Amino acid sequence: MERIIECVPNFSEGRDRNVIDRIAGAIASAKVISEGKEMKVKVLDVDPGEATNRTVITFVGSPEAVVEAAFQGVRCAGALIDMSRHHGAHPRSGACDVLPLVPVSGVTLEECALMARKLAERISTELGIPCYCYEAAAFKPERKNLAVCRAGEYEALPEKMADPERRPDFGPAEYNETVKKSGAVNVGARNFLIAVNYNLNTTSTRRAMAVAFDVREKGRKAREGGSLTGKLIKDENGEQVWIPGTLKGCKAIGWYIDEYGIAQVSMNITDIDAVPLHVAYEEVCRAAAARGLKVTGVEIVGLVPKRVLLDAGKFYLGKQQRSKGISEEEILKIAVKSMSLDDLKPFNPKEKVIEYLMVDEAEAAARERLVRMSVKGFAKETASESPAPGGGSVSACMGAFGAALATMVANLSAHKRGWDDRWEEFSDVAEKGQAVLDELIFLIDEDTAAFNRIMDALSMPKGTVEEKAARAAALEEATLYAASVPLRTMEASLKALPLALEMARKGNPASASDAGVAALAAVAGIRGAALNVRINASGLSDKTPAEPLLRRAEEIIEEAVALQDEVLEEVNRNIGS
User: Which has the closest alpha carbon to 367: 459, 270, 444?
Assistant: First the structure.
C-alpha cells in the first residue's frame, strides 16, 4: 500500500493574494530525494477567507515530501507575515497557526505523531519559532486539546513563554523579536476528519437540530420530563447534566440551506476508524426516522480517503448479501448510490477521493500504456515489429485472465439462486481473486518497463573507463530486475490456482469449464514467465543473484502443474457427470 499523508496548515493571511500564492508556491515546490527519486507533494486546495484573514492549504504526498513541504510553508509564512499587525475573526497564535499531519493510507496515526514532533523540533531549531504539539502529538494530556495550546491566542505568548507550565514544547526560552513576528505554531497529528451534511426531507431547522443532538457525542442538555422545554437539570455541584449522543467523536448541528431549500444535519466525523462514514449515515437515518424524517442524501464537504468509500461500498454489498470481490469502480458506485451522495449534485470520485487526485493522468497513462489498450490493440501491438511488449507482458496477461476467470466463478456462485447462505464463502474467494488480478494487471506494464530499463542502460555512453564501468553496473542492475519481474508474475499467477481449484470443487457446476480455463491460463502465464526469468538471468555477468530466482521458478512450475492437474480432474468429473 502506498504511504500517503495529508497536511492541512492554516496560515494567518487571507487577504493578500501575493502572500498566499508565495506560501502555496513554497509548499508546492518543496522536494526531497528518496531512493534516487525526487518526491514532491500535490497541493489539492488553497482556500482563503477574508473575514477570518486566514488561508487553509491542503496538500498530500509521501510522508517525507509532506514534512518537508510543511517546513517550507512555515518558513515562508514566518518571513512574510507579521503577527504583530494581524487581525481576523478566527482564533490564531502564529503566522502558521495550526499544522496537522493526517494519515491517509499506509501510515498510522502514531507514526504521524512522531513525524509531527520531529517537525516541531526542526521548526524551532532552524527557524527559531516556538511550537506547541497537540492532539496525538501532544506531550501533555491537556494539550491534546488545540484550544489549550492556543489559549489567549497570539497576544498571550509573552506571558505563556514566561510560565514554565504554559511554555511551548519547542522553541526559544523567552519572547524575542522573531517570536513577536512569527507567533507560535501548533503542530499536531490527527485522524482524517470528514465534514459531511445529511439532507433531510424537511425545512425545519429545529427538527434537524434535534436529530443532531440525538447523534453527536456531546448530546443535549438534560431537562425535566425529557422534554425539549422542561427545566434544565443540574448535578449536586450545580453543573449542567448532559445526555450524550450515540456517535463517539462526532460533532453535529442542524441548519437550513437556502441554496437547496432543505434542512441538514451538518457533522464532523473526527475519527473515521471509530465511526466510519456509513456507520454515521445509518445512525443519522435511524435517528431521523424516529422523528418522522428521512435522510434523502449525503453531501461530503471536501475530500475523503478512498478507503472511506470502499468500506461503505463493501458494507452495503454485505447487507445485500452480494459478493465484495468486484472491481474498485463498482464498489465505489455501490457506495455512492447507497448513501445518495449524488442527491444534490453529481458525485465524481475522481474529484473527491484523495488518492485519485494525486494521480498525474499523463504519468499514469505512460505507466499503464498496455493495460489501457483494448484487447485488439494489445494484440496488434504485440504483433508489431517492436520488441516490447513481449513474452513477459503476455505471460502476465495470461495469468491475469486466469485470476479473472477464477474470480468470475466465485462471483457467479455467490449470486446463484438457492445458495444465498453461502454468499460470504464465495465473496471471500472473489476478493482474493481481485487482489491477484490487480497485481498481475500491474505486472503487464511493469515487465515492459523492466525491458526498457535494459535498453536505457545499453544506450549509456561508453567512451571512457568510468563510463564503461557505470554502463556495466547499470546493465547488470537492470538485467537482474528484468529477471525478478517475471518471477513476480509467476508468484502472482500461482495464487490464482488454489482459487481455481476451490471453485472447481465448490463453485457453480455450470461454470466448471471456466475454472478449468482459469487453471490453464494461470499455468500458461507461469510457464511463459519462467522462460523470461531464465533468458534474463542468462544475461547476468554475476550468476550468483540469479540462482535463487531460477530455483524458485522451478519450484513454482512443479507446484503449479500439480494444482492444474487437480483442477482439471475436478472439472472433468463435473463435466462428465
Answer: 444
How many other C-beta atoms lie within 10 A of the C-beta of residue 547? 10
Q: Both ends of the chain: CA-CA distance in Å?
A: 44
Output the pLDDT for position 164.
92
Q: What is the pLDDT of residues 140-150, one digit of tens each?
A: 999 998 889 99
What's the alpha-carbon Rg for the chain, to the nearest Å? 29
List all residues 6 or more positions away from 269 whose beta carbon is below 8 Å from its beta carbon: 193, 194, 196, 247, 249, 250, 275, 277, 280
Q: What is the DSSP code string of 523-542?
A: HHHHHHHHHHHHHHHTT-SS
Among all residues, which ones are annotated catalytic? 90, 447
> CA 212 to CA 219: how far, in whole Å?
8
Neighbours of 54 (CB within 10 A): 23
Positive or negative: CA dihedral 321, 324, 327, 329: positive
Could you tell me which residues come within 8 angstroms of residue 242 by beta carbon, excluding any fewer than 6 positions away? 218, 219, 220, 221, 222
Distance CA 295, CA 290 (A): 12
How many whole angstroms separate alpha carbon 389 and alpha carbon 401? Answer: 17
pLDDT tens digits for 410-431?
999 999 999 999 999 999 999 9
C-beta separation of 277 from 194 below 8 A:
yes
Contacts of 445 (CB under 8 A, 6+ apart): 367, 368, 369, 370, 371, 393
For cell 437556502, what's the residue?
A: 258
Rounded-to-integer distance, Cα 394 and Cα 392, Å: 5
